[in-house]
């Protein structure tokens, strides 16, 4: 197989470390930086609405941008954390082109691999994240105590951060790479957690206007108004709006995004704060085509769907292909007419944070989330009643989640006790149907931008409803044995129950007289966690963490690659009796050091999975057959090395190296025989990654250049086909002009993604993974992209 040629970067290849922001030689050892490999003195969930928020949030955003405060950014290698944790501040998020996903910014961290076909990381179908060897559906995500589930494309169990908050309103992001704290509300995190925190409204009235232009006719506007303190108690709010339009970087189609955020903060005296947050999001995305390595080698990485050329798709459905497409191993699936994803979401939450007495604090958050989605693709495997060889196949989804979590903290001289509960009820419905496309020359094809009612379809295929109840209780204690030695111990109880109900089954389509219908429960009375930190000197410390986690069961409609998506009722009945939830024991230990000129970290880890469930993809991506298989135990080992060098003259350099080996411990059996996967590397996971960033900052000028190396990634479980390794270099330059009249901190920013214009495979496994061989589950990354932004605060 011909491999795509990749050029490695000359710019940073000789640099031994990757550099992060340090504003000058005169800064103290605890000065703030953009990315922190850090810990906290306690392992609690941070909350942005503290009782003294009326005092601490007294500066305008313009002032914060000019001089980031330590309240925004945790100290470098802050000391005291009993697990490996990293925080990215709003200062670091602001260096990316506006509209860039907060998840994409995490790719600069050790062992984090973020995949996306577009430069912003906004095209949600293509976005995937792995942390160490944990896939995205094995992680837990939250926003201000709102559980976001595993942030899958379809919103069965959660919501993507891009739809939950505008990226400019995120204040910081905290990543726990190994295992999250027991108090994080999540039923999916076999491994780490990623917690996003929104900023509060400003105490001073003002606002922000920001305009971005760039490649692919990118046009993005962001506007925010802060009311300032409306009274002596500190009542204040903000409202923000973002609008984006951009063309696909290949093929045809225009993606549109609109989003509104609002937040209200109301202090009550010195000890209590009430906060309310609201988000509305609307997205219309035209899909890039999923490719196989065969398609990439024969047709090139710029190959895409036929849209808007309906005639070409029509003829292809009749078996009339171009000469080049005919050379592929599957001409029918090389391209379709069009695919799209339409989403509309609402998020609301309210939080009370109060001090109940000396050392005693209580925080409670209630939330509600509503999701509506419509995904389309025009299939050549289904004909329309009018005789056209094409039909639009669409999947509707409707989700409604509500819940609450409550935490109490009691601090004594040597102990910090934490306890809390989380409850969520999740109603979710998913259906699929077919709509008629026109005979060629007898009308316009159906628009992929338009929502369609299942009642107008000429065939309804199936309709599923699910109800999930999740309950979690936790207790933990951090005991300070000595001033420099602490132990954290705790556990959580987790019960996650899902019941399915078949609303509609069309045997003419499914071939089944009845579809699976029933319930699955994942429960664990006590999932333990113990961790510790020993600060052997003022600047050196050891830490360790041991924890056990369990994941609830995935659910989705018929034949959609989950435990509930089996093709017949008898197979599901067997799963109800025999299926066991996935669990993982996570072990990690590390050493942190801090010097005036250098910060360093080394972490080793091991994970033992049990009852590992994998989804096997077969057939075409339109007529796929997905099955769930228990492959038994899986073992993962890994190592992380990272360091930041602080040079004089406003320069810093950061570099990280990570190695991960995740292999299956057993072979497994299917109806076709034994599959010999023992010792094989898990698909989609790179074994080697290297991250580097060089930053220079002087007065109003900020310059940074970063590079990511990602090793090869297998697409199949037998490790026969892989995406080659790649180097990607990005450049950012920003200049702050200061104030001009009512305008505060006028600034101009330029971002260049893929500076060296590499040809690379960004995404692996978005359509699932086969047992062996090539599969239509790759997406190339964008070529070099330019974006410019002008922003002002008032």
From TrEMBL:
* Cross-referenced Pfam families: Plug, TonB_dep_Rec_b-barrel
Locations listed in the record: Cell outer membrane
Q: Which cellular component appears as one GO term in the record?
A: cell outer membrane
Q: Which InterPro entries match?
A: Beta-barrel_TonB, Beta-barrel_TonB_sf, Plug_dom, Plug_dom_sf, TonB-dep_rcpt-like
Annotated keywords = Cell outer membrane, Ion transport, Iron, Iron transport, Membrane, Receptor, Signal, TonB box, Transmembrane, Transmembrane beta strand, Transport
Keyword Iron-sulfur carried by entry:
no
Where does the record locate the signal sequence feature? 1-26
Name the SUPFAM superfamilies on file. Answer: Porins
Which residues lie within the region annotated Disordered? 26-71
- Taxonomic superkingdom: Bacteria
Which residues fall in a compositionally biased region of kind Low complexity?
26-50
Name all TonB-dependent receptor plug domain ranges: 82-192
Its membrane topology is listed as: Multi-pass membrane protein
**Annotated TonB-dependent receptor-like beta-barrel domain residues:** 295-755
Q: Can you name one GO molecular function term for this protein?
A: siderophore uptake transmembrane transporter activity
- Segments crossing the lipid bilayer: none
Q: Which PANTHER family match?
A: CATECHOLATE SIDEROPHORE RECEPTOR FIU, FERRICHROME IRON RECEPTOR-RELATED
Q: Which family does it belong to?
A: Belongs to the TonB-dependent receptor family.
Q: What is this protein called?
A: Catecholate siderophore receptor Fiu
């Amino acid at each position: 197989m011909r491999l795509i040629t990749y050029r490695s970067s000359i710019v940073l290849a000789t640099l031994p470390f990757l550099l992060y922001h340090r504003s000058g030689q005169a800064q103290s050892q605890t000065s703030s930086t953009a990315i922190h490999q850090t810990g906290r003195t306690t392992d609690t969930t941070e909350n942005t609405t503290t009782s003294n928020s009326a005092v601490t949030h007294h500066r305008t955003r313009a002032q914060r941008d000019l001089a980031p405060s330590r309240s925004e950014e945790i100290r470098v290698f802050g000391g005291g954390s009993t697990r490996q944790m990293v925080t990215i501040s709003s200062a670091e998020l602001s260096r990316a082109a506006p509209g860039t996903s907060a998840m994409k910014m995490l790719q600069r961290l050790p062992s984090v691999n973020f995949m996306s076909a577009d430069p912003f990381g906004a095209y949600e179908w293509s976005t995937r994240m792995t942390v160490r060897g944990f896939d995205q559906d094995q992680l837990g995500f939250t926003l201000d105590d709102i559980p976001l589930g595993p942030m899958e494309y379809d919103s069965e169990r959660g919501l993507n951060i891009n739809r939950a908050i505008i990226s400019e309103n995120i204040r910081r992001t905290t990543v726990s790479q190994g295992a999250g704290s027991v108090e994080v509300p999540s039923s999916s995190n076999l491994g780490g957690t990623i917690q996003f925190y929104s900023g509060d409204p400003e105490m001073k009235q003002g606002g922000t206007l920001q305009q971005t232009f760039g490649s692919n006719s990118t046009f993005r506007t962001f506007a925010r108004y802060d009311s300032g303190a409306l009274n002596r108690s500190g009542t204040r709010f903000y409202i923000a709006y973002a609008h984006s339009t951009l063309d696909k970087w290949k093929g045809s189609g225009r993606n549109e995004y609109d989003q509104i955020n609002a937040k209200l903060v109301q202090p009550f005296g010195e000890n209590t704060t009430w906060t309310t947050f609201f988000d509305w999001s609307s997205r219309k995305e035209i899909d890039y085509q999923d490719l196989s390595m065969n398609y990439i080698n024969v047709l090139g990485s710029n190959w895409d769907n036929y849209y808007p050329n309906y005639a070409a798709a029509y003829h292809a459905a009749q078996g009339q292909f171009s000469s080049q497409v005919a050379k592929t191993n599957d001409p029918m699936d090389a391209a379709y007419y069009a695919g799209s994803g339409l989403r509309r979401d609402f998020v609301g939450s309210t939080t009370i944070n109060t001090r109940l007495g000396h050392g005693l604090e209580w925080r409670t958050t209630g939330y509600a989330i509503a999701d509506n989605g419509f995904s389309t693709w025009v299939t050549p495997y289904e004909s329309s009643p009018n005789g056209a060889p094409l039909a639009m196949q669409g999947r509707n989804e409707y989700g409604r989640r509500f819940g609450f979590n409550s935490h109490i903290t009691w601090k004594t001289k040597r102990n910090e006790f934490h306890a809390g509960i989380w409850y969520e009820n999740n109603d979710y419905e998913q259906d699929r149907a077919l709509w008629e496309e026109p005979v060629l020359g007898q009308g316009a094809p159906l628009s992929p931008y338009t929502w369609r009612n299942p009642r107008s379809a000429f065939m309804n295929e199936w309709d599923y409803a699910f109800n999930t109840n999740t309950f979690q209780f936790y207790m933990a204690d951090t005991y300070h044995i000595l001033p420099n030695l602490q132990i954290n111990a705790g556990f959580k109880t987790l019960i996650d129950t899902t019941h399915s109900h078949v609303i509609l089954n069309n045997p003419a389509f499914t071939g089944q007289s009845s579809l699976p219908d029933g319930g699955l429960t994942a429960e664990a009375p006590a999932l333990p966690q113990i961790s510790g930190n020993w600060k052997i000197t003022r600047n050196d410390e050891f830490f360790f963490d041991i924890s056990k986690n369990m994941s609830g069961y995935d659910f989705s409609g018929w034949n959609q690659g989950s435990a509930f998506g089996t093709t017949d009722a008898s197979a599901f009945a067997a799963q109800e009796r025999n299926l066991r939830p996935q669990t993982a024991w996570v072990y990690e230990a590390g050493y942190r050091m801090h010097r005036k000129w250098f910060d360093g970290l080394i972490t080793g880890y091991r994970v033992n999975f049990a009852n590992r469930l994998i989804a096997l993809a077969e057939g075409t991506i339109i007529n796929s057959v997905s099955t769930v298989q228990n492959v038994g135990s899986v073992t993962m080992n890994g190592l992380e090395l990272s360091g930041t060098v602080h040079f004089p003259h406003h320069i810093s350099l950061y570099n990280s190296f990570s190695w991960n080996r995740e292999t299956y411990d057993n072979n497994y059996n299917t109806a076709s025989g034994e599959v010999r996967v023992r010792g094989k590397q898990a698909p989609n996971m790179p074994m080697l990654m290297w991250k580097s960033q060089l930053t220079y900052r002087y007065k109003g000028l900020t310059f940074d250049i970063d590079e990511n190396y990602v090793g090869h990634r297998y697409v199949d479980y037998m490790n026969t086909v892989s995406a080659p390794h790649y180097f990607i270099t990005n450049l950012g330059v920003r200049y702050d002009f200061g104030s001009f009249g009512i305008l505060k901190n006028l600034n101009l920013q330029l971002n260049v993604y893929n500076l060296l214009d590499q040809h690379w495979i960004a995404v692996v496994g978005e359509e699932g993974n086969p047992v062996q061989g090539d599969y239509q589950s790759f997406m190339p990354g964008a070529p070099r992209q330019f974006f410019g932004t002008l922003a002002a605060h008032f």
